[in-house]
């Protein structure tokens, strides 16, 4: 049982609290001889970093990563890679009030009930800060994928922010041009106005994030409990505040008929199968088809809001909770790089698992 | 890495193909001294058994379970419990055609690509028959829960069949009175007509199943990767044909505001917390709250239909696939007892894990 | 936690009691396309089978293995392989007396204390019959090694039986020519006389078994807790009645100086390193060197003897235990094929793990 | 697969190289509410610290541990505990020569062959410095045992140094009074003279360490692969340079008869079983008996000696290796606290596992 580890061969163990001296992760099982340095990891961390615009928490963390082990002369050695990020902008006094009070929608009450002790400064392990360690690990996974499966590209983007989805066609080039990673200039504008209003009223909203991985070779995954989608579902559901995970058609698959849902197959010019559609999200029977792997997850609205909500204290007294502190009105925005990181880790892990069992050999068609 | 195992302390390893001599599972880590016999397990298997009405496959399997180890004089011994179900109604000749052809929407093509070999008789490991072993394991989990946490009740039911959801209020008493396990007499009638039509036209449809577990003690689960919902998501996504998993509000959480989503807390008369709503689905920060644990998943329509779909053969030739055989027009119906079984296994597993780490002690309120 | 599973990628889960209807194992993670049938596995089981001569228990078990899954048309499919052996010669009445009495040196008392229930017919899971499942799994591992690393040869033999070791040089050709698998005709003769005497006096003796694996490629294993020798030690110590495990020089390494212990290195004609000696037993820093991997373990004398030993009953009364039944005067004899099987499983598992992490690539010398 | 993790519920993942900026470990699964601070861990690290007398390496490391997470206001929170030790006295230039040369008896050659890259500064992960992280983890385990099973006492000591064992009776009070942790004043004197001579001649020697754990409750462990002794064997064999592991009678069990080896049982005045001897080393059928758990392991002599040994370079040239640097003439001395730490971790882990499966309930006698 690994409470704080995910992955089978490429294993990531995260550690650290929101308001402790540091947080980080140990990445075990990375292949040797992968080019890696702090700059490569920092690139991805900077995408997740808070305080970059008015839509995310104003806590200002440099999120500077240090590699403490496992890399020698710019390449991985095959030994565990320790990544450490120091916390520099804790303001624990912001949390004085919640030491005795359970914030509705937060893990305060369940942590207390389970452990009988809780680091009440900012949510401890259940803080979104834990996801910085995931993004750092994702940076290692991306470096290893670049070496082992150079065709793989992993892109995350938002497809819904509270009341608003995306109307009209998606333009993937827009993703990097707005603070919401949304593939639509029009949506970016609508969403900005919506979020401004929410923020001013002290409210928050949920989000839907999609991560698409192209270039994933056919044959990753395994039947039954070793399914690629099983691990993707677990990886995404393990992100703070996530309440739903979908592959391809997702929950809407329940509404379809077999005729509509079947992705027809023909043979492409290069001898590889070509599919007429991708309802399956790139995975059949738990194994990748070679199409884009498409994963979607929903992040609930942060419960840290200025609107008063009824709750109780540790001593059982009724109270009202109004969360001031520094919080994200839509924490889902910063979940985009986290989702990408999780998908990168899972795909690399299954690439390594597949090398173990099949040696990477493939049944041929034609 | 456990390709065919799930669970941490209560571990289930399933084995067996659709058309081999038998299938089954090894259940390891069950507490000792739990009352158990074949009748208790058979009860749950009979709920999943095909051929019981015109809405499920006409393959007639007795699905008779045998306990080969781990039970002595009517009680578990703490050693591995082997459960075996013999296949008795294979008609492998039904599958002669698919030996050389990849059925769209099935795992035929990905299994071939990955392994370079495939037991083409009825889908092998990716057949819904594998889920019989899960239901058997779920029977063991239920027996252990009855001994260790007698208040836990786990109920599965369908909430959508293709185009049709449930209109009007739910009546949980109806679940056992119709072939769809739907908590609504009116829906049962509508769905029956709809499914008749689909069946006659040789089509199929998807389904949405909800499993609700009441009486789950607060404190099960763990932060980060050991979340109760992480394991529930993995367990449900590992079921054949599942494409989405939701906890509580699920994907709709993306649409809510923080004000709407917060489950307010007060203290009940018995000194335990009482929640004003259950958007969280009974889980906060990965740990159970004591409310009902609510999980939902979507099953895609079976791809085995009479409608011709374009595909290719192993030698790369274009072809059209029409699946005759004996198939479920809505395979999601039989996924209800499977979902219940997976939820039972996960809850028991986390009950045991919690005993390991905390000894079952709890932080007190008041 | 896997109470009854060993291995990482090639995972074996055994199940079954000495006097239940059957026992067996699930082998998960075997590479696909390995030639395998029941005859190949039976070959190894027949070597372990009891009742073949007067030196082993007179219980007559056919130990006939059935493959229930995972093999299709003579080749493995990559899905779990279920191997079942039915028990046919139980004489449970032999065990009536021990239901209430704890046999000294047996697990009767600890099983009772731990579980509060125990299948008292012949030791249940702690019976040497459990090792039949290991030998069957070892047969699968050997078949996979034959396909993936054809140069590997694994040979087990006894190097001590109670008071007697091997005097004079070893002759490996003798191993198959005597009932003790001892590489010395002279020792075989001495040991036979010694064991006859022990058996007649109702006593038993311990044994030392060595397993040597040649042709193991350099580079298997990993530093720290993933060491090849760590897994070999665990695998051998998990065999019933084993009390010590050694690699290469073993416990005697404590007596040596650094000068004596260093295995000097030179370059062979084929460009591979050649070692002047093999104190290391083929493993340096947890990773195979390419030399023979040499493992040794000690099996304690069976405690089932005719000599009366003091003990207590479940109700706490003092008693004397004399074990009649059908037992091995030197149970270590049948541990030889078991040790071979465990070594085969561990080497295959590390071969697969190495493919995962390094893809089988190697640093070159010269 | 966890290359750098050991334990099932109480899981320790170590990281860091001998000459990197730091090393440490993540301890996951520790029960909450255990009193813990840096002083408590430092106590055990100071016992292992090098440079304390002329018999250990003159590298002077403060080995100062920092707790970076998982402890709040002096108590564990149930979340991962990160322990970091900075390296302060690296003299990597000592290792310039070995960048291109494989030292006989070291892992230089196998690391190179496996990974094609190697941190050649001081052995990287295979350096004895990695064991500092184990000792730190052991400090956490001891703190948890003090809270959960206060009767457990774990004591390590040397029983052999090269040519010399212990003559005469053991006096456990002497263990803390000499630099070798040997339970005999006379042996301490003999060994000191012997080691002086070895050190002057630039040679080294092996060692045998015994760890005895008293007060371990009956019932820890599990049959087959979850045996307490299986995990003890793996834990000890995973320590650098260990070549053999024994439980109780160990390898000598091969020499005994069943009559001699049986530990007779009677009922003590307090209603608990009392054993007439402890050949079993406190473990029967993989489960603790309540007697002292006795583990022994052999450490080979360090290969870093002034005596020239033949070897080859990376380019395949023959060479002679003379290791100057700062090394332990008997590295086994510092393995005593390491062995204690591993045993503490394993016993705690099995205590937690037993709570998971049985809830700590016991079958009663009498």
UniProtKB/TrEMBL annotation, chains A, B, C, D:
GO terms for molecular function: chorismate synthase activity; FMN binding. FMN binds at residues 125-127, 240-241, 285, 300-304, 326. One of its GO terms (biological process) is aromatic amino acid family biosynthetic process. Pathway: Metabolic intermediate biosynthesis; chorismate biosynthesis; chorismate from D-erythrose 4-phosphate and phosphoenolpyruvate: step 7/7. The keyword Lyase applies. Reduced FMN (FMNH(2)). It is an enzyme of class 4 (lyase). One of its GO terms (cellular component) is cytosol. It comes from the Bacteria. Keywords: Amino-acid biosynthesis, Aromatic amino acid biosynthesis, FAD, Flavoprotein, FMN, Lyase, NADP. Its cofactor is FMNH2. It catalyses: 5-O-(1-carboxyvinyl)-3-phosphoshikimate = chorismate + phosphate. Pfam families: Chorismate_synt. Signal peptide: none annotated. The keyword NADP applies. This reaction introduces a second double bond into the aromatic ring system. NCBIfam families: aroC, PRK05382.1. Belongs to the chorismate synthase family. Homotetramer. This is Chorismate synthase. The gene is aroC.
